[in-house]
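Hey everyone, long-time lurker, first post.

I ran two proteins through the pipeline my lab uses and got sequence/structure pairs for each. Pasting them in order. The first:
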Amino acid sequence: MILPIVAYGDPVLRKVAVEINADYPELKTLIANMKETMYNASGVGLAAPQIGKAIRLFLIDASPFAEDEELSDKDRAALKNFNKVFINAKILKEDGEEWVFNEGCLSIPDVREDVYRQPEITIEYQDEDFKTHTETLNGLAARVFQHEYDHIDGILFTDKLSSLKKRLIKKKLDNISKGKINSEYRMRFPNAKKGK
C-alpha cells in the first residue's frame, strides 16, 4: 500500500525516533508498504518518520545511482546491490574529509542543495530478521545512509545548510508545509488549509 509522505513542517520529522524490537506490530507489512511508497515516489531511501512513525527504521535502494556514468566502476558495483532495511542503526565511526553532493528529500520536494558529509562510515544495524550487522560504507552509499540516519534523529538535510542558504529557501519550505506545491506522489501536509 502506498502511504502518504509527511511534508516538511510536520513535528514527527523533528522527533528522535525510538528503537524497536522483533515484536513491533506488523513490521513486515510496514516495510513492504514503505518500499512501495519509496519506489512510487522514485526515491532511493525512506525513513519511518517520513510516513509518520517515529521509530528507528529506514530503507535504502541506491541501485538507481549505479547507472551514473560519472562514477567509478567500483562505486557503481557497490551501489548496484545496495538495497537494504536498517533497524536501530548506529554510526560507530566517521572517517575522511567531508565532500559535497547535491541532495534532495521526498519530504521536501523541489528543493535540492549541496550538503557536506563524511566519505566513510562504519555502521551497526539490524536487518528485518533482527540479525545484527557491522559494515563500512563509502562514497554515495555512506551519503545515502547518513541522510536517512539523520531522519531517525530528527534532522533534515536543510539543517546542514548555511544561514544564508536557509534564508533563501525559507519561502519554499513554508509553501511545502502549507501544501502549496505540486507533488508527483501522495503527501501529508502539516499546515495545509482544510477544504481546498
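...and the second, right after it:
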Amino acid sequence: MLLFQRNKTILVGVLFFYCSYSILSDLFINKLSLKFFESEFYAYRLFTVIEFLCFSFIIYKSLSSIRLRKILIFSSLFFFLSIIIDLLTNSIENFDSLPTGVESILILFYCILTLYEQISTGKPLYSFPVLFAFSLILFFAGTFFLFIMSQNNFENEEFSNLYDYIVAISKILMTLLMSVGILASRKTETQNNRTFQKT
C-alpha cells in the first residue's frame, strides 16, 4: 500500500511537471526561442521530447505487466529514431511533423496497452490509468492529422490559427479528464483506507 502511494506521488509529480512546463512553454519558452533563434520550432521540438518522456513514464509506471513494460521501452526507440531521421532530412527550423506523428501513434498504442491491462485485470473504468489513457486518446487522436499536416502548412496564417485553437481545446479537455482521474483515484484510495482501518 505504501509503495502504491509513493508510486502515485511520483506520477502526480511528473504530471504536475508536464502541466507546468506546458504553461511555461506557451508563455515564455516559445517567445524566447523566437527571440534568440528567430524560430519557435526549437521550443516545439523540445516540447515534443519532454511531452513524450512524461507521458511514456506515467504509462510505464501505470502498467503492472513486465512484458507490456518491455514492449513500451522497445517501441520508444522508434520515437528517438524518428527524431534523428527528421534532423537529417529536414531543417531544425521546420515543424517536427515526423517525431510528432510517431509520438502520437506510440502514445495511442501505449494507451491501448493500458486499457487492455486494466480491463483484463478487472480494474474499475474510473481509475487513474484508464482515465489518463482516455485523456491521451482524446488529445492525440484529435490532433494527429493536424500534426502531420503542420510541416507543409504552418506558414499559412489561417492554418496556424486553426492549429492553435484545436490544440488548445484538445489540451483543455485532456487536462480536465486527467484531473477527474486524479480526483477519482483519490476518492477510491480514501474509501479503501477506511475499509482497511475498519478491518
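Reply from user beta_strand_b:
Welcome! Quick read of the second one: The chain has one domain: 2-193. The two ends are 15 Å apart (CA to CA).
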